[in-house]
Structures are given as C-alpha cells and as structure tokens.
C-alpha cells in the first residue's frame, strides 16, 4: 500500500548480507534516474538495548517503534517518491525468537505495519562473503545462518511475498529497479 504516494521498499535479510550496500547503490541509481529517494537505515544501528543473541521482546518493541516513527516521518517529506528500508518487521521477529510477548504487542505492531511496504526483497548470505565486523552485529556465521533460515517463517507469519535477490550488488539493483518499473 502506498503512503501518500510514496513507494516503500523493504530489504530484509540476515546481517552482513550486503543490504546496506545494496540500498546505497539503489538510492544512487534512483537519484540518477530523477526518482527522489531516501534510505532508512536499520534501527539497530542506534538502538541502546541488547541485540542479536541477547535481544529480547523489549528490544524488539523499541526497534519496531523506532522503525515506525522514522518511516512515518520519511514518507511525509515533500517530493519524496521512494523510501528504501534496511530491515523491517520480519527481521525484528527473527532476532527475537522464543521471547514471550504476553500482550502480543510486538506481533501486533509487526502485522499492522508490514502492509505499508510495497515491495519486499530478501538478501541471502553468501557463504563466500565473510561476515563484516561492525559495532552492531556479532561475528557468528552460525547465528547469521539461523536468522536466514528463520526468515521464511516470519514472512509467512506476516503474509509477506518476498523476492529473493542474487548475491551481487549490481544484479540486485537491476532486479529491484525492474520490479519498481524503473528502467535499469
């Protein structure tokens, strides 16, 4: 569903799969074609709570709230046509497995916000590409694979149809531009 005429694109996937780099390339390609766009970075980048192996339902709720706030602000920017989102509700759910959510707040937020995305693309890990260490994510190949393996269930829970992307950034951009109806 379009919000105020703005197309929202969600790039979902485990950490260190090139989502941020792909969105940067896509943003440049859109701008080059005269399509005003902006990248909404992953909320985990500025989350003050524990992430990954220690992420709990409170962290997940914070991430969902911050994501909703930031995307709501972005879609209201005059002249903006595309919001490129680095991670979203499916990603938050798979990082919070087995944590009780007594009021079902997290799942309710995820289910109500997910339909605001017009397109969902899935970046899968490339085993040949090692995990890039940063200040946010753990360097744990097993954990990265567990997140990737759990995403289809999160997509099902949220009634998401995702488009799996190739590994190479330029190929990803071409696939996404084609889906958006923008000439590659």
From TrEMBL:
Annotated NadR/Ttd14 AAA domain residues: 8-166
Name recorded for this polypeptide: NadR/Ttd14 AAA domain-containing protein
Pfam family membership, one: AAA_28
UniProt-listed InterPro entries: NadR/Ttd14_AAA_dom (IPR038727), P-loop_NTPase (IPR027417)
């Amino acid at each position: 569903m379009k919000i105020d005429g703005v197309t929202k694109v969600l790039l979902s996937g485990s950490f260190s799969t090139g989502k941020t780099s792909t969105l940067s390339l896509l943003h440049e390609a859109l701008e080059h074609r005269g399509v005003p766009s902006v990248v909404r970075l992953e909320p985990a980048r500025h989350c003050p709570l524990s992430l990954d192996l220690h992420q709990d339902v409170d962290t997940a709720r914070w991430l969902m709230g911050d994501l909703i706030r930031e995307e709501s602000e972005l879609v209201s920017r005059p002249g903006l046509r595309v919001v490129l989102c680095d991670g979203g509700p499916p990603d938050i759910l798979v990082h919070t497995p087995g944590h009780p959510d007594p009021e079902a707040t997290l799942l309710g937020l995820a289910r109500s916000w997910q339909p605001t995305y017009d397109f969902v693309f899935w970046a899968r890990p490339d085993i040949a590409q090692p995990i890039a260490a940063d200040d946010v994510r753990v360097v744990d190949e097993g954990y990265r694979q567990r997140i990737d393996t759990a995403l289809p269930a999160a997509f099902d829970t949220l009634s998401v149809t995702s488009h799996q992307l190739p590994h190479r950034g330029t190929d990803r951009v071409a696939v996404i531009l084609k889906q958006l109806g923008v000439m590659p």
